[in-house]
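#lab-general

N.A. 3:47 PM
ok so I finally got the sequence cleaned up, no stray characters, all 190 residues accounted for. can someone with queue access submit it? mine expired

B.Y. 3:52 PM
send it over

N.A. 3:53 PM
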Amino acid sequence: MSKVYLRQININKNFVSINLNENVKKHILQLSPNEAKLSYNAWMLLKEVLKNEFDINMDKLHIAYNNYGKPYFLDCNIKFNLSHDEDIVGVFIANNDVGIDILKIKPIKNLKTMIKKLNLNANATEEEALVTFSKLEAHYKKIGTGIYASYLSSAITIPLVQKIVINNQTYIISLDFDNQIDNIEFIKWY
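B.Y. 4:20 PM
back already:
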């Protein structure tokens, strides 16, 4: 069981953080308004997937966060990771620790600064910088520290980096997982 669920969203649509675990609500309310909307949509996607695909009521699960803010279930063996960017949210579900990052391909405002922070060749392209950042984000999310813990190495190897197109928008999806995962299914969820 290893699946990635993706949903495009309308970020301009208002939301109310109801129907979510109290720990999740507290976490969402600490975020900026746009981040809160994206996070809420990612959590709602996870909730719908658990209900419809696994017959699990997320409201009955206990959710905790590690010291770096990585959420996990205390009373369920399902491992998950959430990601979002601008108009898309994603959930990676598996039996082992996983990390996912989704980035919409777009111009980078401070490309030279990003290239330097990522220890890339000075001539690196925007796409190379985005892919490297996404790989790092997925890796650090899998191990539970988040990318902000360190930009230690741009040479991290992760199992899967893929470009996908949904409704004429191109995204980079990076997945980090243990070798025990053989097959990953991508599902657009509406």
